[in-house]
Amino acid sequence: MIGADWLGPAEWEAVRLSLRVAFWATLASLPLGVLTAYALARWAFPGKTLLNGLVHLPLILPPVVTGYLLLIALGRRGPVGQVLEAWFGIVLAFRWTGAAVAAAVMAFPLMVRVIRLAIEAVDPKLEAAAATLGASRAWVFATITLPLIAPGIVAGAILAFAKAIGEFGATITFVSNIPGQTQTVPSAIHAALQVPGGEDAAARLVIVAIVIAVGALALSELVARRVARRVAGA
Amino acid sequence: MMLQITVRHRFAGFTLDVDVSAPPGVTVLFGPSGSGKSTLINAVAGLLRPDAGRIVVGDRVLLDTAARRALPPHRRRIGYVFQDARLFPHLSVRANLLYGRWFAPRGAQGARVEHVIEMLGIGHLLARRPGALSGGEKARVALGRALLAAPRLILADEPLAALDEARKAEILPYFERLRDDVSVPILYVSHSSAEVARLATTVVALQGGRVAALGPPEAVLGEVAATGARGIASVLRVRVAAHHADGLSELDTGAGALHLPRVAAAPGTVLRVRIAAQEVILSPAPPEGLSALSVLRGTIAEIAPGRGPAARVVLAVGDQRLIARVTQRSVAALGLAPGQTCHAIVKSVAIAPEDVGQQAPR
Q1: pLDDT per residue over B37-57, tens digit each?
Q2: Which one of B42, B57, B74, B138 makes the best mutation probe of the A interface by having the most chain A beta carbons within 10 Å?
Q3: How far, in Å, are A25, A29, A82, A92, A94 from residue A87 at the CA level?
Q4: Which domain range does residue A217 map to?
Q5: Closest approach of A39 to chain B, Cα-based (Å)
Q6: How many domains does chain A contain in total?
Q7: In order of start, what are the domains of chain B with their CATH numbers?
Q8: What ipTM describes this predicted complex?
Q9: Does residue A96 lie in a domain region?
Q10: Which of A171, B172, B224, B250 is surrounded by the most beta carbons within 10 Å?
């Protein structure tokens, strides 16, 4: 058996931090992800193409560029960062919360794509039928649309979680690589490989990364299948 | 409750321009596909916003574009039975049935749940999901769901079109019962003259986005070749006179008897029978030596030559009208002329069971 001391304390710290960052990145961006996906799938509004491009930008930009743009905007001297600190006392730069923001931004396009596909698969005729039966738009969404896209939301969230766990470029650019603060598993692997004799630590973290990724995938399959069975109504 | 619908709406290459006022009962929008039936019913449901229009059910104004008033669909208090049922796949049959009821105002005069479930015979389906239902079962649940929303108006958009003949025969009586038992007005879209003959209180025949004819089915059906010449038919009110031992029922039209394979109605019951125009044979002299049992005696009211070799002969039988579709050559050969006495021969087997329905109370 592998004991708890198989990983050193610094490595445990990186694993715990990664899980925390990915969890909050996913959870906090989920409502916005559903809203954005719904808007792109169902609404016609000026600037829709622009919004679509903006959402997908982190997918095609080099992650370093995304991280740098985040630093410029959300850093302590950035326009948004100043407002956040002055009004809410929130500092993102070089904190784990900043790592969560970077991970959320990088994972957002994937999350929105999956949820949008699920929304487009819902027959608008069902929503129209619910409306004729007396349900307002909010009730139609809550009782018809949301249950029907639940498998897509679960799949999108787990994909975003996996992406957030693995995020490296934007994170290290925006919040650096501070052990115990912003050093997630990928950052820790990168750091371990910079020092002579760090290959063992790197290898252990690589195994951890693989286990988390495969575990997330298996969980998503399991949950999505269960939800899909409930929704399909056989 | 009166139904008043005035709608004008322009699509690419098609203009719907309709002004309809219908008495209580079942109003059937009748016409070929592309005549604007579904557009009109969706405008009533609020799923489509017409360019201009006014829609009033009883004393409730659903739409008045002149007054910039348009109730959203969920405030219109309608029960819409869709052609494709549209049951919610993630909910059980029970939850589907109760969906609209949940949003209906408290104290709304709706049908009782147990009553509807019993009437539609869906008690054994309640725990199932829609995915596990047959087409006929889905249609019944969809009808129940619309009824239980306590609607002020029931809309039905070809609710039987997706079903085979056996299933149609299974669902149609529920609509008849609805018409006769419930005071809620029904707007029913159909392109089947058999359904029109059985259900309609009022027929609105649509053609190319306009009202081609409007009135009771006895008057309208013969006028409009909405489904082509083969769709021309007349509807006769008949009274069940007797059931004979050889399996035939005798139906009195007031101008002769129709003999049909056993009809499931007690003697004395008034029924309506649809008779397709091309199934009627005319003879100026009383026919003899024929196998047909049903002979009606009447007077020729009108002879209208159609396009092609056929002619439409309208016969006044008692106080009703029977339409025959014969060739113009026959009209000439027999010397048929308006005012002349004539005999109409109807083959008993030409009248299918789905052509016989309950007469709407007047």
Answers
A1: 888 999 999 998 999 999 999
A2: B74
A3: 22, 21, 8, 14, 19
A4: 16-232
A5: 20
A6: 1
A7: 3-225 (3.40.50.300), 233-358 (2.40.50.100)
A8: 0.79
A9: yes
A10: A171
